[in-house]
Amino acid sequence: MATASCLQSEDQFLCPICLDVLIDPVTTPCGHNFCKNCITKHWDTSDKCQCPMCNEMFDKKPEMRINTFISEMVAQFRRSAQQKASSSEQQVFKPGEVPCDVCTETKLKALKSCLVCLTSYCETHLEPHLTASSLKRHQLIDPVENLEDRMCPKHDKPLELFCKTDQTCVCMLCHVSDHKMHDVVPLKEAYEGKKAELGKTEAEIQQMIEKKQQRIRKVQRNVNFSEKCAEEEIEIGVTVFTTLMQYVERSMDFLINTIEEKQKTIKKQAEDVIKELEQDISELKRKSTEWKRLCSVSCSEDHLRLLQSFSSLKVAPPTKDWTEVSIPPSSYEGIVVTVAVQLEKTFSEDMKKLLEAELKRIQSYAVEVTLDADTAHPELILSDDGKQVSDGDVKKNLPDNPERFSNSICVLGKQSFSSGKFYFEVQVKEKTKWTLGVARESINRKENIQLSPEDGYWTLRLRNGNEYSALNVPPVCFSLKSEPQKVGVFVDYEEGLVSFYDVDAPALIYSFTGCSFTEKLFLYFGPCPNDGGKNSAPLIISMITSGSGAVRRGSVPRGSVRRGAVPRGSVRRGSVPRGLVCEP
Question: Span 194-211, mean pLDDT?
């Protein structure tokens, strides 16, 4: 009825002409209401003056005045309609909100949900629960969807408790029957506990996020640093190889110019000889012509004329003896060899400078190294400072702990490395046998061991005073121009690189590349048996100081090589004759 009354009242305030709410309402003599503007325009365009509603005719156009009573009612109607529209707009259900279950046409937003009725109510339909005494006892909560899920499916009662034992929500009847001996608490208490637990978990997650973000920043810094180093390496490499190419170009130009100048000299000498010979030939041809003419006179047997003509001829000038004059074919043997030898000498000098700079850079990664007595073979003798080791020929009675080598005469360093770069130097002076390198933590220390990368060893060894070999697969044997007195060992864990250097030369001896390191690495020292005193000298870990040329990264002279780039899986070695067969 209210809706019908509202509609009827609304129809009363509509203009019959524009069918909209009256504006400046006026009333005709017949009692019908119109917008002043609408009825005026209607009569202005019509031949007859009559009411558009009842068609009553007027003799003359009525004087139209605004009906103040109707105008006030229209204004009040407009205000009421605006308030109603504003109120409805605020309460209309929107996506993401809980709708009123009672509203049939336009769904309004629910203000509360009843756990007894399992229904959500808007402000209007909630009123009985706030006023009726029988409904006031119902449990109201903030509006939620799927109220059926909040009811116990077994007892059809609200889930008001939480069983910590079974980690599930239960009703009061469940607590009395199935969960009687369990740890049951009110939902609010369980909620507070879970909320605190979630807060703690959230803090842990945020901490994990921060750690990972720090890791990302660290990785990015490493990438930026690597990019900077790469640019420096490229710049230096371009400088080095440009210089080398210039050396080659100059040597080639010198070779070509030398040969061409020699050829020009020979050609000039030949041209001079040929010119002089041609002059002699021309003179002899002239004389030959005169002698032929004289011969014709002699044939006529005119004695007087012959004698007169003969006496008038000059004696032929003596010609040069050309038997000893010759221009032998030019020989250029030795010129190319001479230039190549000079070029090699220049290369050797520059390579020495480059290797010196390379070694200085690598020495900046020097680490403090000491020997681990717990790993030493019982025959070995270690110095008190842990810097020297030699074979004592007598097997001491030592505890056979798991770290100790039982059969191999060797010892490991105390320090381990699982990332980054590190470098150390060992004096091998006066030794005829030794083995040096690095080994992974899980190597076999109790049985006879095979030194190879597959078994966890990356080592270089000396045998018989001058037989060097890198224990790769297969082993690589080679000779060196000079016997190293001090060996430097450099490891780049991430790059998978282990390089050995002759520190005094300086020269690169050998490199293991493309290695896969997944464990801790320890330094490996094998002084070998003393061989009746011939190999009694100790291996000595050298102290690397600034006097040795150790520098920090960035102090390598411009134009020098910072790092010898070697493709993964390849092997570098210094002064290794090709085709050399390795001793088994």
Answer: 91
Q: Is the pLDDT of residue 102 over 70?
A: yes
Six-digit token pair at 262?
A: 């020699």
pLDDT digits (tens, 9 = 90+) for 5-63: 444 456 678 888 888 888 899 999 898 999 999 988 888 888 888 898 898 888 888 88
Per-residue burial over 176-197, b if 16 or more Cβ lie within 10 Å, else e, is eeebeeeebeeeeebeeeeeee
Buried b (16+ CB within 10 A) or exposed e, 442-469: ebebeeebebebeebbbbbbbeeeeebb
Which residues, other chains included, contact 114 with Cβ-Cβ below 8 Å and sequence gap of 6+?
A: 120, 121, 129, 138, 139, 140
Angle between helices 68-91 and 2-12 (to 10 degrees): 130
- Rounded Cα distance between 584 and 582, Å, is 6
From the CA atom positions of the chain, what is the Rg in Å? 57
Give the list of residues 6+ apart from residue 88 with CB closer than 8 angstroms, or none: 106, 108
Report d(CA 118, CA 113) in Å as an integer.
Answer: 7
Q: What is the pTM of this model?
A: 0.49
Distance CA 368, CA 389 (A): 16
Q: Could you report the per-residue pLDDT of 327-370, keeping only the tens digit for each?
A: 666 666 677 888 888 878 877 777 788 888 888 889 999 999 99
- For 126, 160, 184, the CA distances from 179, given in Å and listed in that order, are 35, 13, 8
> Edge to edge, what strands does the sheet with 119-121 contain?
119-121, 112-114, 140-141
